[in-house]
Amino acid sequence: MNLILLGAPGAGKGTLASYLIEKMGVPSVSTGNILREAIANGTELGQKAKAFMDAGQLVPDSLVIDLLKNRIAQDDCKKGFILDGFPRTIPQAEALDTIASIDCALSLEVPDEVIEGRMTGRRVCLKCGATYHVVNNPPKTEGVCDVCGDTLVIRKDDKPEVVEQRLATYHAQTEPLVAYYEAQGKLKAIDGTQGIHQTEAFAVAALGL
Ligand code: AP5
Ligand code: MG
Question: CATH 3.40.50.300: does it fit domain 2-26+79-207?
Fold first, then answer.
């Protein structure tokens, strides 16, 4: 299955993706994680993306579409994939339609009021991409990644003023994708406010896994 996870910043796309990787046996592709890795490695892509990300704005479509195309052309995506954070604009969705056949867009519905608490408590591993929350999903040892042992950090774009800008960017540029996939008959929406395990259960039911 080729699945898209739609949802606001902090809706829980990355958290659900890490569960569905096991459940569906396919890789997840997070454009946000790929871009953060590019910044950490100081690549040309990272240098171009950094200012946009730090400001809570979208990286230009041309950069992201190319990186996504290259990523899903790799062998591990042949049996299916989960897209986390792509597409984020109508032009990205139209480009995706020309390179892959999408089975379902699963929308995680979480109101803006809930997002802020999730962002302030989020801790991430920049090495392997794992995501935690100090209350909702703490690591076994404080500040240390369960998966790879690296030190957990607060994402640069999780500052309250940047979160506000990311939400505004989401509503203006990404939310129209809900109607785009609804018109294609591919949209499934679930409540994303009910805790991590309940969200996983809603996703399993919606996807018929
Ligand atoms: P990206 O990394 O994709 O960020 P985002 O979409 O803003 O989403 P987040 O990663 O912040 O949230 P999430 O939905 O994954 O939530 P999470 O699971 O972590 O993109 C970052 C930037 O890169 C963008 O701003 C843009 O600049 C650029 N970019 C990326 N893709 C792009 C594209 N296609 N085009 C252009 N630019 C692009 O959960 C959040 C927290 O809540 C965690 O602490 C988690 O533990 C907790 N949590 C999760 N689920 C639940 C639950 N059900 N109950 C309680 N707590 C929960
Ligand atoms: Mg994420």
Answer: yes
